[in-house]
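Reply to dn_fold:

You asked what the input looked like. This is it:
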Amino acid sequence: AQQDRQSNVVLRAENESLKNENYQLQSTLRNLACPSCGGPAMLGEMGYDEQQLRIENARLKEEFERVCCLVSQYTGRPMQPMGPTPLLTHSLDLDIMTPYPRKFDQDHITDNTMLPNLPFMPENSNFPVNSLMILDEEKSLALDLAVSSMDQLLKMCHLADPLWVRPSDNNANGKHVLNLEEYARMFSWSVSLKQQPHEFRTEATRDSAVVIMNSITLVDAFLDANKWMELFPSIISRAKTLQMVHSEASGHASGSLHLMYAELQFVSPLVPTREAHFLRYCQHNEEEGSWVIVDFPLDGFQNDYPPSFPYYKRRPSGCIIQDMPNGYSRVTWVEHAEVEDGPIHQVFSSLVSSGVAFGAQRWLAVLQRQCERFASLMARNISDLGVIPSLEARKNLMNLAQRMIRTFSLNISTCYGQSWTALSDSADDTVRITTRKVTQPGQPNGLILSAVSTTWLPYSHKQVFDFLRDERSRAQLEVLSNGNSLHEVAHIANGSNPGNCISLLRINVASNSSQSVELVLQESCSDDSGSVVVYTTIDVDAIQMAMNGEDPSCIPLLPLGFVVIPLGQTNNYEGTNVITKQPSDQNGQLPDSGCLLTVGLQVLASTIPTAKLNLSSVTAINHHLCSTVQQINAVLGNCGNTTANFSENNVGILGANVENEAAPEIKTTDLVGPAS
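and this is what came back:
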């Protein structure tokens, strides 16, 4: 009888799925357009082969136009793109043609391996190591530029007025801005190297902080691309040292010059990544007990790298690391760049244009938090380990959580050329979906469907973070808890903030359930730039393997989580925090209070990497996103007795095209890891 009841439940779910798919098919047929005239098309008018050819033709034309844009930026001469393409909807790699329109060129779901191998977008295993290097006869020029750039960085770190001035705006609240005229006068050599068109925006920020890490360890991390990525997992998606241009005979770090590549990310598919090739120079001042790390652009060299798209160039930027007692260091950071914002969604436009998204404050906030985490990782005087058998097992569990955080950050951004698709043509829509075909270890093999949305919440950053990181309060969200509660069996504190911790949670299921015991690995971390809560299901055997010191890289992780960004940062800079004032469009701007909540979900849609994604899966995960944010807002609203009409105003944004549909059910265990 129980089996019959379970079969009935499954059949009813499949029936609902078929109904929804049938509805979408009918809607698609009604919206088919003739590729010649744009009018309504008759069924059977276009053959399958012709459809596929036109889809491929449209994709190739898009790639050609993109290359034209890049060539135009590199050569300075316009390149004529192809003529207009027929009115044809692009394939979403679904079973059927989809009526969903696209918001940006970057939003087409494609197989990442089909992206062109552009020089500024090297694949992880295909960095341009043996081409476009600094020639031997240019190395003396590179060292001269390194010394000049270092002097410029020192002045930008130490000088105030007139280089950094208070704006006349009464709403500045004590912040400073870079005086571009004074900068051009003081550093005319830097400005005259290669003038760029005026449409590129100058972005400059400055900040200072004390971190719990000595200068030697910090310098070693900055000069090692892999360690640099681990130090900033939410900012640096990939980095590579392409050439050791110069090093001292003694092998000492001081005086070394590296040619590097880096891709910088903001943890959202609504903000494009920034890619750059640059030179990094390191110098030690023994008298002052300080180190200088400076990055500067590749201007004036014979083999110049083509600019990235959107355009991004690092002007002399970097940090001064001053030794302090007890293993601490004071770090003064300057970020200075010429940027082209590209297709940034309006929900993040003010954060990017104000310098908050990629500025010095964010770099230092992440550095402070990661240094505290590293101190916790290396701690040896911990007496109470709970169920964790040893200090080595504790370290292995922290490393596994670090990989989970990095995987989540990479999977919900636009790094590695990852493209995303909008589910609505509305400018307010923030829902983006993408698929990945995974065949490598570290994630479950198959076709993975990811969905991300960002919503403004009228609650403080801390209030939302504390709610999401607490497994007991998060159990109130039925869409995520699936009716099961969580019990913490292990806890690792990794920072001064009580919310910075790693937890191992047991899923409490009914005593008569046939489900095997499953665990949830969760890490939550918070700093001034924002907060992250990431978790994934993991089976007991995998945890045992990680704790026993076996290689955890083969453990498949498919995390989901939340990113909370506080608003009002652009108006709350004090002390040495500095941003470049830039005009911005006030239409559609977010309030200067509350926070932005980004929800990222992932599900293994199929264990076959080449499988087709059916439309019901897209509808289901979109519905799940909408329900998650609605329930978070409802619970927080009940706690704070705040405005009740928020959900009504935002359902249209989150639930585009599925407001009135009964979405197929996705179980929580399907969304939090491969164990199910």
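The radius of gyration is 26 Å.
Hope that clears it up.
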